[in-house]
Amino acid sequence: MRRKMVGISLLLLVLLAAVFVSLTVLFSGGYERIIGLNWDPDLPRSSGCLYETDSGTSPHGDGLRYHVLEYAPGSGLAAALEEQTEECAPAECGAAFIWDGLSVPADWRPDPAQCCCFTKAHPSDSRNELWLLLSADGTWLYAAESFL
Q: How much is the pTM?
């Protein structure tokens, strides 16, 4: 009888863990959710992250982050960026500073002149910078962040 109770208890623990993992995956977002939490834009869900790098952890939370996210055509990303961020001229885009600081390979750096460039002020610290570059076809978002 005791073996049966232990077996049932283990089975229930495994089922509970499976439900927890499923709910976590279902309700957690990709990196676009992190951008939303840090900067306030509500971006559509991406298909996935193609490239990512950062400067590592810091006791003060400062550093550099860079992500390349892929989107399906017609995802609504361009409209979300136009409504919730500020468009800037490619010459004004400060992402190159972040790419250089992270030693991002050239094949993961877009040409700002071939992209729509956007920025967003940080809600609580104006020293922080966010640069969002949208590929010409609207399917790749290059997100460069600097936290000071």
A: 0.80
